[in-house]
Amino acid sequence: MAHHHDHTDIDWARMATHLETQAELFAPTYEQVMSWLGEEVTEPGLIVDAGSGPGVVSCMFAKEFPGARVVAVDSAEPLLDRARDRAAHQGVADRFGTLAGELPDVLNELDQPVDLLWASRSLHHLGDQRAALAAFAARLAPGGTLALLEGGLPARFLPREIGIGRPGLQSRIDAVEGEWFTRMRAELPGSVRETEDWPALLTAAGLKHTRTRSFLLDLPAPASAPARAYIAGFLTHLRDTLTDGLGPEDRTTLDRLTDPADPASVHHRPDVFVLAAYTVHTAVRAE
User: Fold this and answer.
1) CA distances from 161 to 167, 203, 221, 257, 272 (A)
2) Is the Cβ–Cβ distance between 42 and 36 less than 8 Å?
3) What is the pLDDT of residues 149-160, one digit of tens each?
4) Distance (Å, rounded) from C-alpha 238 to C-alpha 240?
5) Beta-carbon contacts of residue 192 (< 8 Å; ≥ 6 apart)
6) I need a surface site. Which of 128, 172, 248, 255 has the fewest CB within 10 A?
7) Among residues of the chain, what percentage have pLDDT more than 90?
8) Residue 50, class by beta-carbon neighbours within 10 Å (0-12 exposed, 13-18 middle, 19+ buried)?
9) Total Cβ atoms within 10 A of residue 104
């Protein structure tokens, strides 16, 4: 099994299936988020999903807010193709649009101010996050809301002791991912280090009434087939791209966990679960 250098370039289009699987699996959490957002944003005219990927969450917004027009924004056209197909399949295409380009500048092409701008783990892929938040805020309508999903807790799929390899694999994976994230941020064009105090950054962007809430996804063992597919995809991607930071024993364990023919793999073992926390920060542009 070849193991590749843990580069920080991301081919989002190649990850389309994994992104869809993840968003569909986490749909109960997004539904909780949207219910919470609905307390603040009652009748939005325009919702923008900034960094929408294949549009799973964008289409959920269209269903949750039936009076709104939704625009999915992403730099990867193949993902937006999937978003349009999903909108058509779900019967919301008449209120659904897409916009291709790089954030935040592409938002200048919107034809009206935004009532709800949703940015789910897209901000941290922009070099100057403070400047990007200011650009996001500038696109809001008076009274409009910016909702930022950043932070939370790393997802857990397996117990500390799984009976193969060295115990504590996921903790070591967290460390490898943390190092990769730091390198990814440093290599972005115009990268600026920023203290990740999201409410303070939202306030600095000129927004008011900051709120923060975390949402839990708890899918206990034994995991469903969709959950196993998501976990297998995640671990396969990790094994193929980020394993330079793991030792030989951990790499062997990942090989076994992702091998459908191995009874100890996540495809078969009874102790596989999903436990994750998403944190959302919101703030409002003054009337």
Assistant:
1) 5, 43, 15, 13, 12
2) no
3) 999 999 999 999
4) 5
5) 127, 128, 129, 130, 131
6) 248
7) 87
8) buried
9) 23
- Give the largest CA-CA distance in the chain: 59
Q: Distance between CA 26 and CA 90 in Å, rounded? A: 18
Residue at 218: amino acid letter:
D
Distance CA 85, CA 72 (A): 12
Fold of 13-284: Rossmann fold (3.40.50)
Which amino acid, one-letter code, is at 91?
Answer: G
Angle in degrees, 0-180, between the axes of helices 77-89 and 16-25, rounded to the nearest 10: 40
Q: How far apart (Å, rounded) are the C-alpha atoms in residues 98 and 116?
A: 16
Per-residue pLDDT at 62 exceeds 60: yes
Query: Which residue carries 């900051």 as its tokens?
Result: 210
- Domain ranges, ordered by start, for the chain: 13-284
DSSP 53: T
**C-alpha span between 269 and 255 (Å, rounded):** 14
Position 1, amino acid: M
**Calpha distance 4→164 (Å, rounded):** 23
List, for residues 216-245, the tens digit of each pLDDT value.
999 999 999 999 999 999 999 888 887 778
Output the six-digit token pair for 270. 């009874």
